[in-house]
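Obj.: predict assembly geometry.
Materials: sequence records (below).
Method: joint structure prediction, all chains together.
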Amino acid sequence: MQVIKTENLTKYYGKARGIIGLDLSVEQGECFGFIGPNGAGKSTTIRTLLGLISPTSGSASVLKKDIVMEKQAILRETGYLPSEAVFYSGMKVKDILRLSADLRGIDCSKEAAILCERLDLDTSRKADELSFGNRKKVAIVCALQSNPKLLILDEPTGGLDPLMQHEFYEIIRERNQSGTTVFISSHILSEVQNNCTRAAVIREGRIIACDNVDNLGRSNAKRVSVSGEIDLTGLEGIKDLKTGERNTSFLYSGDMNTLIQRLSQCKVNDLSISEPDLEEIFLHYYEKEGDAL
Amino acid sequence: MTIVRHELRLGRKAWIIWSASVSFLLVVCIFLFPEMRGEMDNISTMFSDMGSFTAAFGMDKLNFGTLVGYYAIECGNVLGLGGAFFASICAASILCREEKERTAEFLLTHPVSRTRIITEKLMAVLIQVLAMNVIVYALSILSMAAVGESIPWKEITLLHLAFLIMQIELCGICFGISAFMRKGSTGAGLGVTFMLYFMNLISNITEKAEGLKYITPFAYCDGATVVSDLKLDAAKIAIGMAICMAGIAAAYLQYTRKDIR
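Observations (raw structure tokens):
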């Protein structure tokens, strides 16, 4: 079953671009990544899917329900973690968790207690006095405590320390394994690379690539890192050249034999040739359009 | 009812402060009455000689020397303005606040329909306004009894009822405003209320502006008129309720379609 399906989904804010002709499909049980820089349209997509804003044209369904006609049914089974969690001033964490459960009309105090314990969250504090990271934890518990079928996470780890990030993704992985579909929007590629199976890349409101994370990362180019006295002049297919005092690093998409022959004539102390990480591929996607970053 | 409860909790402090202030001022006025009664004859003469100012506040129709006359004027100013401001602030901020304080994303990503949110928020406003009026009414009556005056039940009840209806109309108008704005709705609500208040004063001064009386809700709760006629102006109230309903309808139409940022 396609949990998220958008067809030609378009949103304009007046004349300002939000998203244009978005075609996305996320299968049940998937952990799907949504990558793009700030302002690319990630949040617009999510807000449209959740019914906060209505699409200018095109259509979309979430959990087989139309995003315009069946908003409530979608929200009942969806947990949403906003990128910036803001709560009512003066309310204690436990009151907010309770309010969130009451608005869903269910009792999730057991699940909430487990999550708070795991995330090390003090529920007797006032939410608006918490640090950014702790507010994020409150939002995480709100999103997860009802055990939703779909989780939509907008830049989920912003503000969380590395230990908490680890614990958070541990929880997400458990949920995913027990069948929850997860949709992660992020501009941090390693986050998507480490946690998602499939991903789409969005740029200026349009999807420019959508594939398995492994395939997205696969390209002809290799990351070459050499130390020693080397001379690369005249070699073709070199990109992103970084020359340090001892170490030279570049993306190489030319003929491998030429490179090896050239290196064999130099004095090489150390050499590594590896797959570039998604971050580099990502830059590559963006450069393809001929823009300077 | 979750949202009603939640709104009442959020609005509790403001409600306590406004109710206490308005009640306090009214009670003080009533307690001052016996002492001032002796001097009232002079004051009445003085007030009735202030030309259009006298007319603006309806002091030409009332005898300041009686409790009813004194109360109609005092009540008109204290409860009239205080209640009107509380009602308009409360209604104007309630929908808009979610976006201004950026809690809309939290509330609207829960499985509650926009219609339910609007309805429950409107109920919360009306409950707060009603509760404030009940408290103020009760304290006024108690104070009158405490200073040993006989209580003019009919006049006082009619006056308070008129004020309540006026506040409900303002709630409707400001609730509509609240749905259209992202921020600054409190200012807009207060501005409209202030404008309507002055419309009534102007229409009292000059007959040319008589028509304004049909627009402003302050016309049908004009203390002097209510007390001297001993009935409420049904036509004006009907127009007022129509305006109120229009405001509420506008809120539903707008807020169910609105893009939440």
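Conclusions so far: The domain at 2-77+148-217 of chain A is CATH 3.40.50.300 (Rossmann fold).
To do: check interface contacts against the pulldown list.
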